[in-house]
Amino acid sequence: MNRHWLRRICNSPWLRRICNSAALSISICNALSVSAQTDTLHLTLDECITMARRQSVDAAVALGELRSAYWQWRSYKADLLPEVSLQGTLPSYNKRYSSYQQADGGLSFVRNDYLGLDGSLNITQKLWPTGGTLSVESSLDYLHQSVTSPTGGGREGANQLMSLPVAITLSQPLFGTNHQKWDRRIEPLRYREAQARFLTETEQVAMQAISLYFGLLLAGEQVNIARQNLQTAEKLYEVAQAKRRMGTVSENDVLQMRLDVLTARSALTNSESMWQANQFALRSFLDVEADIMPAVPEDIPQLRLVYDDVLGHALRNNALATTMRRRQLEADYAVASARANRQSINLYAQLGYTGTGNNMSSAYRHLLSNEVVQVGVTIPLLDWGKRKGQRRVAESNREIVQGQLRQQAQEFRQNIFILTEQFNNQAEQLRIACEADTIARRRYHTNVETFKIGSISTLELSDAQKAKDQARQNRIQQLFNYWYYYYQIRSIALWDFERGCELTADIEKLVRQ
């Protein structure tokens, strides 16, 4: 009979509908679970740093600044190479009256009617050792002038050509500042500074990613702690109610446990809100849409840095060291320019051949020498101390720059020493925090079991819970400090201490991508 009753129940329509609904619910839950998995991005710390360097806004800004410096450097190098230019007037037509001075000194107006064409090919090269300019020129001028025929039969034309097959021209300032020579010393430092700054900014992007990554990780730990505390508070509240009914605890203890439940719920709400804020910040920084699930980094490099080694790498690679050298050169350049501003002497010399004729062949047949030498001199006789004041200002500014550079050098060395000591001490701090976290959790679980049997009070249990929470959060914080200090030292020294190599980048590939 029982089998017959069970068979009837299993074959009933309402049971089949319930089973179908349950299967459909399970399928929907599985689909939602798969969708949630696809919308969640699990990231390690290294993956987060790599993604930040590749697609964050800060990384794009750093790359844009590098591109600007790269093309500025390319423009400077191109300016040192010979420049070939073609100039011409095609054509120039004039038909008008113009004034003409006669032999007796009187002026009259004459009618001009002519067509002119001219063109020149120039090759110019800057001479950085002397600061001058050397050029080679070849030109041809054509002039067609219309005149009235003496017989009154109309107008006739006369063609004239002037050729300059080759002319070498030198323009050289004498006893002045060689700007090209100073640029040759300053511009390479400026480009090296831009490269080092890009690498530093890339490491700073990694530091920002580390801050946001551990901020989300710590917020997630706080959510987990709040949930565990709420579950534990609810269980202990049920235990306290049962003990109250048995008369083993006072009403005050029960109310305290109820207050702990409310406090735990409030803490969970606040921690979830903080987790959402940190989640949004990291997603925006990495430019991703999916929720990010960070993982606690377990592999910690066992490093102990030496101050002298870190300082040596920083002095060779850091942008600040290059900036200090560049600023010193610029200050010396300003003083040299102010001292050379007392007078101005320029030499202009041209040597070549020229010819004229009515046609192309005659213009290049009988060539004559074409020589020009000019020396321009500008000497101030009375300037009321203006140039002396400019020189003193430049010298004072150089002294200020030298003082600032000495101060920056001292602060630079001091910051490196402090960071090195902090990093070396942080490894021990992290080890202590991990051990304290393990002990605090064991102590808390022991106190929970002890409270259930009534051996400790609620205050002692609350103290163990706070110690557990603080130890867990301190472990995450010390882990963050370790990685932040490490990448901060990397950003200053521009050196990979794990692999023992210099931080570099393929500038050509980055600029052209």
Total number of beta strands: 10
Can you count the helices? 12
What's the number of domains?
2
Class by SSE composition: alpha+beta
Instruction: Identify the CATH architecture of the largest domain.
Output: Up-down Bundle
Strand order in the sheet with the most strands: 2-3-4-5-7-8
- CATH class membership of the largest domain: Mainly Alpha
Instruction: Report the mean per-residue pLDDT as an integer.
Output: 84
Helix content: 55-70%
CATH superfamily of the largest domain: Outer membrane efflux proteins (OEP)
Terminus-to-terminus distance: 81 Å
Biggest sheet, in brief? 6 strands, antiparallel
Radius of gyration over C-alpha positions, nearest whole angstrom: 42 Å
Q: What is the CATH third-level topology name of the largest domain?
A: Outer membrane efflux proteins (OEP)
Give the percentage of residues in beta strands.
15-25%
Order of helices and strands: HHEHHEEEEHHEHHEHEHHEEH
Q: Based on CA inertia axes, which overall geometry fits?
A: elongated
Low-pLDDT ranges = 1-38
